[in-house]
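> call design_seq(struct)
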């Protein structure tokens, strides 16, 4: 009887396990093979989730399929060239990728995990793209030359790399950790708007900025005022379009483009931003707001803040001069709205309200710096074109088989 019971138990266990095993097998089964290398259903699902997390427009499933096929081709080419990113280099590349969202790598990975995305999915995405960029530079970089005539033609065509002004509307939704998910969901709804009236109504309802009183409307501002990492995104908008949600510390930012124009006078590239921040305890209280208004009434320039901070602890007043790229995204956006010696008090952290004043913007003095920027831009364009040709050749020669 014991032997019979053992056999029955084994049969039942096998039957129960069979559907789970079949499901797992289907998940990790090849969906496509690229020169014999498999792209699994799991990889497709994970990449689609990652693209959705990045607010990628369009059909994320189709885009995931296209990207993963291309990445298999890239990896095969990298293997042939004997190129491999070191573990240390990969960790650095992942940290830099997370920094674009103003997050540490661990925090970024945790945020993705909440959407069902594995760390390995991010790792694979960053690894192939970082390695491919290095490979393209090494393979073609020495052969790319940019003439002075090409630079002159580009400057004549564009009026300079930043000779553009934008007319934007803005919303910042507070998103402290307990409300982060709700704020993100609301921001995603707003990002799909195409009506300026609808965006303005949302700004009046949810924005934490003083501009909410005018529906989030900003005046014309040079593109160069905005953080460099956002300029390409802002330029990609059509009038009426809204950016995807932009994460900042304890908040989510959105911008709607109302209009774009060539700048009456091309603004110089900014080399350094001088700003001051006066810390006011009690963020979120009427007392803190009253103190910020009092400080505004006492100060016409950044130097006046030293008188306000006299006899207070030294850490209450901080003044720095930094490259625009060194600014956190939320501070960069705060300063973008300000002219010299203007102040705002929209930023807070850990119970402290920050009275922020722009002291000055120092432009790059030499015209040669503009030409260098255009040269680098043209080199990047030529390398990208050569990489596209190489990838098209690899795809034409490949055996890509849907399973």
């Amino acid at each position: 009887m014991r032997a019979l019971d053992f056999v029955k138990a084994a049969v039942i266990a096998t039957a129960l396990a069979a559907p789970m095993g079949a499901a797992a097998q289907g998940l990790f089964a090849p969906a496509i093979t690229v020169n014999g290398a498999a792209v699994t259903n799991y990889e497709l699902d994970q990449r689609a989730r990652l693209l959705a997390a990045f607010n990628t427009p369009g059909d994320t499933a189709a885009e995931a399929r296209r990207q993963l096929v291309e990445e298999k081709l890239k990896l095969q080419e990298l293997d042939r060239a004997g190129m491999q990113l070191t573990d240390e280099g990969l960790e650095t590349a992942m940290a830099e990728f997370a920094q674009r969202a103003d997050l540490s790598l661990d925090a970024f990975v945790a945020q993705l995990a909440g959407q069902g995305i594995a760390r390995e999915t991010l790792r694979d995405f960053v690894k192939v793209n970082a390695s491919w960029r290095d490979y393209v530079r090494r393979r073609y970089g020495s052969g790319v030359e940019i003439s002075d005539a090409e630079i002159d033609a580009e400057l004549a065509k564009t009026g300079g790399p930043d000779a553009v002004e934008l007319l934007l509307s803005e919303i910042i939704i507070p998103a402290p950790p307990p409300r982060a998910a709700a704020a993100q969901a609301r921001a995603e709804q707003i990002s799909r708007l195409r009506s300026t009236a609808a965006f303005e109504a949302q700004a009046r309802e949810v924005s934490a900025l003083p501009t909410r009183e005018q529906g989030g409307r900003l005046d014309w501002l040079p593109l160069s005022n905005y953080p460099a990492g956002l300029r390409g995104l802002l330029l990609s908008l059509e009038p009426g379009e809204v950016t995807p949600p932009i994460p900042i510390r304890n908040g989510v930012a959105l911008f709607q483009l109302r209009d774009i124009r060539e700048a009456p006078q091309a603004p110089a590239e900014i080399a350094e931003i001088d700003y001051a921040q006066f810390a006011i305890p009690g963020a979120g209280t009427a007392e803190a707001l009253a103190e910020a208004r009092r400080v505004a009434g006492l100060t016409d320039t950044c130097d006046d803040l030293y008188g306000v901070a006299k006899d207070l602890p030294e850490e209450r007043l901080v003044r720095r001069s930094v490259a625009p790229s060194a600014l956190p995204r939320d501070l960069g956006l705060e300063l973008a709205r300000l002219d010299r010696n203007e102040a705002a008090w929209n930023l807070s952290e850990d119970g402290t309200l920050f009275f922020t004043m722009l002291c000055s913007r120092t432009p790059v003095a030499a015209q040669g710096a503009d030409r260098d920027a255009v040269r680098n831009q043209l080199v990047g364009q030529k390398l990208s074109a050569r990489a596209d040709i190489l990838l098209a050749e690899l795809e034409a020669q490949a055996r890509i088989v849907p399973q």
